[in-house]
Design goal:
The strands form 4 sheets. Strands 6-5-4-3-2-8-7 form a 7-stranded parallel beta sheet. Strands 9-10-11-17-13-14 form a 6-stranded antiparallel beta sheet. The protein has helices spanning 2-17, 32-37, 39-44, 55-58, 64-67, 73-77, 90-100, 127-130, 138-148, 182-203, 218-221, 223-233, 288-300, 319-335; strands spanning 18-19, 46-50, 104-110, 151-157, 207-211, 238-239, 266-271, 303-309, 343-344, 355-357, 363-368, 374-378, 385-390, 396-397, 399-402, 413-418, 428-434, 440-441. It has 448 residues and is of the alpha/beta class. The protein has 2 domains: 8-12 and 345-441, Immunoglobulin-like; 38-338, Glycosidases (TIM Barrel, Alpha-Beta Barrel), CATH 3.20.20.80. Helix content is 30%, strand content 19%. The protein binds ligand H79. Ligand H79 is lined by residues 62, 64, 211, 214, 253, 269, 276. Ligand H79 binds next to loops.
Length: 448
């Protein structure tokens, strides 16, 4: 009996203290069909979000400005007359997105204001029907993305504050209560689902990014049906988590996780300044260093970054946003092997910075935060290190193993002195080639 108990204790201790590489990739469980359709998304890490609509004419909050009564609805809709897309060059957009390193792009096919970027056949607003642009701006963009091998995402607002059969309108007024007029709500259901069907059949997006689900329940949106109908036409389509429980992945907005999210797939959507659409009075741009730090942190914790840009009404992208995307792209070009197609990094505690792991778990990438170089330390690595290289350079380094005690299973500390000359302008990455899949000691020294 005692022997059995001791054996069990040792087994439990071993599980608690050692983090075995052989099961690393299999930690996440989910139906195979979902896992396989999510693979490109898991590998992609970076997407570019595009908020383009009539709100770029005045440079005001997308849809929310009239909803929150900062401007009258009538004056908001006057912006229709100023949306020209006169200098719109979808190939330039796609090339810039490619240059940033992003693997997918998500564009607002329709925001809460109800104005469609594609020529909807429904009796409702579109840039084709109601603006001087007079064309389908979605189609050539998706074609350009296809040419660049970038996955195509469709943001679609479930909320439509412009539609006469949608109950919600201004923040303190609604048109009617669904319970009082279920037939009217049914008209809206038919309408929004017909729009989704139009986009789905005409453009076959790789990813659907719904927004605004919070205004109604899954039953009211017929969320299960919406999902089913999308997948019946495009079985491989990925659907974001804003469909009242019927999506594939989570979408924290502007808020950065601190502890690692438990979700299999998640994506942080974030603005480059403080606004989604073009907002010339908002100059509070994140620096490329800040964007890269946030991006790496998300990837290290198993997420993607969906970084937003807000083009002007004529289709030009603000210079500050072009600059951020280009700098991010230059960094990705040099350091991308540590990002794209990797697995989430080591659990917190081993390294004071973000990390990622290669798919076969035999490589660890250490990201040096705060533009540091010098002596870095890694704790609890049981493996033997075969080689250390500063990513994007030919510099190879030797580790110093400190404090290894012969009689103890606790591994020594790995110190690596990263010379100043290897410093990346934004974030230096160090690659550790291991002898076999990563194995970590996770205990408390002798205090087990
Ligand atoms: O398109 C961009 C924004 O316009 C839209 N999503 C991004 C991608 C967005 N803006 N705000 N939000 C989403 C979240 C809104 C939250 C609130 Fe509420 C709406 C706060 C109060 C009303 C939801 C409902 C949270 C609390 C109640």
């Amino acid at each position: 009996m005692l022997k059995k108990q001791i054996a069990l204790c040792i087994l439990m201790l071993a599980n608690a203290l050692f983090y075995s590489g052989s099961t690393y990739a299999q930690q996440k469980t989910s139906p195979d069909s979902i896992r396989s359709k999510m693979q490109w998304f898991a590998d992609a890490k970076l997407g570019i979000f595009i908020h383009w609509g009539i709100y770029s004419v005045n440079g005001i909050d997308e849809s929310w400005s009239f909803h929150n009564k900062k401007i009258s609805y009538e004056n908001y809709m006057k912006q229709l007359n100023g949306f020209t897309a006169a200098n719109y060059n979808p190939q330039e957009w796609a090339s810039l997105i490619k240059e940033s390193g992003a693997r997918y792009a998500v564009i607002t096919t329709k925001h809460h204001d109800g104005v469609a970027l594609w020529p909807t056949k429904q009796h409702h607003f579109s840039v084709m029907r109601n603006t001087p642009a007079k064309k389908d701006v979605l189609k050539p963009f998706y074609a350009a993305l296809d040419k660049e091998g970038i996955k195509r995402g469709a943001y679609f607002s479930l909320i439509d504050w412009s539609h006469p059969d949608y109950p919600g309108f201004l923040k303190d007024s609604s048109r009617y209560k669904i319970a009082d007029n279920p037939k009217r709500w049914q008209l809206f259901q038919n309408f929004f689902q017909a729009q989704i069907d139009e986009v789905n059949r005409a453009y076959k997006p790789d990813l659907w990014w719904f927004d605004g689900d919070w205004e109604h329940s899954a039953a009211e949106w017929q969320a299960e049906k919406v999902r089913k109908e999308i997948l019946s036409v495009c079985p491989g389509a990925i659907i974001n988590g804003r469909l009242q429980g019927y999506g594939d992945y989570e979408t924290p907005e502007q808020n950065f996780p601190v502890s690692r999210p438990k979700f299999n797939w998640w994506e942080l959507c974030m603005t480059t300044n403080n606004n989604w659409g073009f907002h010339p009075d908002d100059t509070n741009y994140k620096t490329p260093f800040e964007v890269i730090s946030i991006f790496v942190d998300a990837v290290s914790n198993g997420g993607n970054l969906l970084l937003d840009i807000g083009p002007k009404e004529d289709g030009t992208i603000p210079a500050e946003q072009v600059h951020i995307l280009k700098e991010l792209g230059a960094w990705n070009k040099k350091n991308g092997e540590a990002i794209f197609g990797t697995l989430p990094g080591l659990p917190q505690g081993h390294f004071y910075g973000p990390t990622t792991v290669s798919k076969d778990s035999t490589v660890i990438y250490l990201f040096l935060p705060g533009q540091t170089t010098g002596n870095i330390m890694l704790k609890g690595l049981t493996n033997t290190i075969k080689d250390i290289q500063v990513v994007g350079t030919e510099v190879h380094l030797k580790p110093k193993i400190v404090g290894k005690v012969s009689w103890s299973p606790v591994p020594g500390l790995v110190f690596i002195n990263v010379p100043e000359k290897c410093k990346d302008p934004y974030m230096t990455v160090v690659k550790l080639q291991l002898d076999k899949p990563v194995q970590l000691y996770r205990g408390q020294g002798g205090l087990n």
